[in-house]
Amino acid sequence: MANGNPFSPTFGASPPELAGRDDVLEAIEDALDTGPTHPDYSALLIGARGTGKTVMLEAIEELARSRGWLTIAETAFPARLPDRLLRRAAELLDATGDSQGGWRVTGLQAASLGVTVEHQDADRRPLDLRAALAALGDRLSEHETGLLITLDELQGGDIDEVREVGSILQHVTRREQRPVAFVGAALPSVEDGLLSGDAATFLQRCSIHEIGRLTPAATQAAIAKPIQGLGAEISAEGLSTAVAATAGYPFMVQLVGFHSWKAAENPMTEITDANVSTGIDEAERRIGRLVLWPTWKDLSQVDRNFLIAMTQDLGTSKLSDVAHRLGVTVSYAGVYRQRLLRSGVITAAGKGQISFTHPSTREWILTLDDTLDSQGEAQPPQ
User: Between the chain's N and C termini, which has fewer beta carbons within 10 Å?
Assistant: First the structure.
C-alpha cells in the first residue's frame, strides 16, 4: 500500500476491513456447506455503483477456495459469455483429470470454440458448456467439493447469452443437483431488463441480497480498524465527521479514509478532524467523476429533470413536491421515481419521500450548470 495508506479507493480492490457484510457471507457459506438444495446456492448481489458488489464476489470466491472449491470468475460482458465459461470449465476439467472421470480435454482454441474432449468409451467429440459443467461437477462431487461460478456486471451482458447460461445452470445445479454454485452481481437496473420476462427462470429464482449502505457502526469499523491496525490513530471528532460524511457508502468510505490519511502530517500520531475535512473535500471532488457521472450519463433526460427538481430540497424530497415542480401528476412522477430507485441513484426515505443515495449528489448536480459544452450537453466536472 502506497505510503502505508491502508485504504483502497479503487473499484474492485478489496478494502482492508470488509465491514457490515457478515450476513451475506454467512448465508453463502452455509449454502456451500449445505449443497444445491440451499436457496443461496444460486444468489444475486444487487446494489448501486460503489457499494462493493465486486469486492463481495471476491470475498465469496475466497470463501469457496478456502473450502477446496474451484472457481470461475467472469464478467457478463464482453460478448461470447458461454464460450468464455466453456473455456474455463474445460481447462479445469483437464487440470482435474483422473481415471474415474473418464474425460480428457485434447484441444482448446483461442476463441473458445471447438473445444474437444476424449472419453474412455467414445471418440473425440465437441464439448458444450452443459456437458463440461456436468462432468466437472461429477468429478468434484467424488472429492466432496464443488465449483463456484461468479458473474459480475450482469446488467451489461447480452441478455440472450446470460439467460442461456442461466438455463444451463438450471439443469446442472437445480435439476441435476450437481455441486455447481452461482453468485452474480448487478446494478438495480437488472430487474427491469435481464430479470424481466418469461425466459429468466433460473435468475428470477436466485436469492437476492441487496448490497446497500453500511450501518453507522459498520462504517465506523470500516474507517477506524484499518487505521488502528497500522498502529495509527484518528480523533473521535474526526471519526464522527468521517462517518457522517460517507453516509455508509462503501466507496466513499475508502475515498475519505484514503485522503484523510494523506492529509495528515503524521497519521501515526493522529488523524485530526481538520485532516478528515480536507479528505472529505477531495473525496467529494473525485466521487463525481468516478461514480456520479457514469450514472448520470446513462439516465434519460426526464430522469435527469427529476433529479434536478430534487436539488431544491436540502434533505429528503416529497414526491408530490417533485411532481409539482415538473408539472406532472404524482402518479406520472412515481414511474420515474421507480426507475431512479432501480438505477440506485435515489433511495426511499419514508412514505412519499425520497433522497439521494449519495449525499454529494445534490451539490454535484448543481455544478453541472457550469459544465455544458457548446451543444448543451453536460461534461463530467473535473
Answer: C
Cα separation, 94 vs 104, whole angstroms: 6
Residues 297-329: tens digit of each pLDDT: 889 999 999 999 999 999 899 999 999 999 999
Domain total for the chain? Answer: 3
Cβ atoms 117, 104 nearer than 8 A: yes
CB count within 10 Å of CB 154 equals 26
Report yes or no: 75 and 152 within 8 Å, Cβ to Cβ: yes
| Rounded-to-integer distance, Cα 246 and Cα 213, Å | 9
Residues 47 and 211: beta-carbon distance below 8 Å = yes
- pLDDT given for residue 359 in this prediction: 78
CA distances from 185 to 39, 105, 213, 253, 345 (A): 16, 30, 16, 21, 17
What is residue 336's predicted lDDT score, i.e. its pLDDT?
Answer: 93
CATH code: domain of residue 85 = 3.40.50.300
Residue 142 sits in the same domain as residue 257? no
Which residues fall within 8 angstroms of residue 39, CB to CB, at 6 or more apart? Answer: 31, 207
What Rg do the C-alpha atoms of the chain give, in angstroms?
Answer: 24
Q: What's the residue count for the chain?
A: 382
pLDDT digits (tens, 9 = 90+) for 38-71: 999 999 999 988 899 999 999 999 999 999 999 9
pLDDT of 199: 63
**By three-state DSSP, how is residue 142 classified?**
helix
Burial 124-152 (b: 16+ CB within 10 A, else e): eeebebbbbbbbbbbbbbeeebbbbbbbb
- Residues 76, 77, 83, 86, CA torsion sign: negative
Q: Would you say residue 362 lies in a domain?
A: yes
Contact assessment for residue 157 and residue 77, using Cβ atoms and an 8 Å cutoff: yes
Residue 180 clears pLDDT 80, i.e. is over it? yes
Question: Which whole-number Å values give the CA distances from 260 to 6, 234, 354, in the listed order?
Answer: 11, 9, 30
